[in-house]
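Tokens as discussed.
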């Protein structure tokens, strides 16, 4: 099923994913932490685990877990606050290493990337040699960090594979044994299938990928609609057509924060949205994107979570429009009189900034941060103080068409979940101090 020693030109995608990245960097910088249960995050009552070392995972601690639960499961754990700037430094090192093996890489988050190795196979004598090379070079260049590697015919399978033998592992998917590999896996292993979609699939009796395949595409179509059904169907057969360098809307950038105390809609939420907008805008400019679709995520005190998205007529890149739109979306959410526990702002539907566009939607409104120079200064200041890391990911396919100039991508919850970006465990959440 998983083959280990064969040159095969069909093996053209590598997914490289650092192991317990934030925790591993802390251990690298402070070897006295080695071998100890280590948790990156804030241990306060509202904190969330950002990353757990493998030692802490043995106690059942994992990322995105409330800190209180982590403390209960592993009282002896050592806690460290995330150091975004340092992780960013190491991230740049590993991305450079990936580029030693191919010019075409696609970072998914600070600690993972896809590598298109189709053009490097000959030079490096096959995919396995490249995988081994990446492992060795990451270790050397970082001074001791480990990475897990998945090698496969496409992105979905490569990402799946990198997770099969963590930490410090390498898994090669046999192009002739894809179905055997996929069939026994639970449906949640399909890219983009989150908890809500998993539950919906369980409700119609589909627990494994094999169940899903045997259930047929019609069943999926009745339950989830045509687009989602076909995505699920293709992925369940190991088919994933996404390419590289396709600068289509297949990317997203977002920020998210759980507040140490619930905030209310007003100056505090404005401040968060403004900071997020600036972070996202900075990232869009740096990487040459504009965004067409903005997303807002709100969790209120009772843990109920809302997501909103808005598609703009014109792709934008400026913090002012991001901020204004985020604010409008938040204004339209019924908070039921409760406080805001978590707030997230994201940009999806990214298009190349090289494409000519008209002025942004809010060109007639004066917002102080619109001026490019000012924005650049803010970016600089943020870089110097160590800006919190952005979460980013790739969506399974471009978002569904919304009417030109449409207001809202009115999609079913499951559809939203399938489309929503996924990102590495390490960077799934940020828990910044307010
Ligand atoms: Mg990772």
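Sequence:
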């Amino acid at each position: 099923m998983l083959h280990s020693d064969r040159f095969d030109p069909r093996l053209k995608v590598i997914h490289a994913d650092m192991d317990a990245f934030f925790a591993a960097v802390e251990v690298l910088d402070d070897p006295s932490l080695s071998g100890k249960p280590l948790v990156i995050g804030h241990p306060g009552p509202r904190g969330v685990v950002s990353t757990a070392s493998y030692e802490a995972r043995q106690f059942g601690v994992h990322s995105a877990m409330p800190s209180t639960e982590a403390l209960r499961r592993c009282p002896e754990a050592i806690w460290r606050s995330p150091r975004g700037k340092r992780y960013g430094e190491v991230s740049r090192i590993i991305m450079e290493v990936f580029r030693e093996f191919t010019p075409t890489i696609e970072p998914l988050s600070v600690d993972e990337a896809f590598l298109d190795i189709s053009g490097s196979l000959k030079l490096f004598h096959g995919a396995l040699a490249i995988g081994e090379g990446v492992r060795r070079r990451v270790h050397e260049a970082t001074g001791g960090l480990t990475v897990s590697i998945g090698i496969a015919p496409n992105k979905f399978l490569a990402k799946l594979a990198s997770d099969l033998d963590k930490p410090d592992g390498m898994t090669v998917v046999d192009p002739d044994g894809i179905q055997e590999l996929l069939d026994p896996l639970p449906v949640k292993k399909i890219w983009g299938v989150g908890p809500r979609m998993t539950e919906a699939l369980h409700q119609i009796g589909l627990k494994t990928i094999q169940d899903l395949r045997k259930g047929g595409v019609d069943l999926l179509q009745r339950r989830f609609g045509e687009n989602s059904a076909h995505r699920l169907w293709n992925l369940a057969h190991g088919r994933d057509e996404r390419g590289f360098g396709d600068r289509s809307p297949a990317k997203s950038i977002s920020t998210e924060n759980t507040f140490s105390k619930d905030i209310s809609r007003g100056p505090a939420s404005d401040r968060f949205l403004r900071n997020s907008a600036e972070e996202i805008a900075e990232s869009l400019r740096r990487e040459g994107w504009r965004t067409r679709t903005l997303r807002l995520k709100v969790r209120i005190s009772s843990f109920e979570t809302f997501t909103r998205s808005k598609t703009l007529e014109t792709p934008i890149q400026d913090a002012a429009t991001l901020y204004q739109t985020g604010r409008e979306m938040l204004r339209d959410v019924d908070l039921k009189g409760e406080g805001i526990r978590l707030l997230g702002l994201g940009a999806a539907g990214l298009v190349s900034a090289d494409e000519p566009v008209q002025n942004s939607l809010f060109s007639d409104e004066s917002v102080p941060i619109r001026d490019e120079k000012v924005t650049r200064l803010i970016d600089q200041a943020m870089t110097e103080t160590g800006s919190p890391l952005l979460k980013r990911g790739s969506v399974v396919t471009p978002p569904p068409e919304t009417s030109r100039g449409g207001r809202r991508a009115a999609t079913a919850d499951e559809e939203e979940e399938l489309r929503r970006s996924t990102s590495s465990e390490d960077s799934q959440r940020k828990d910044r101090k307010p």
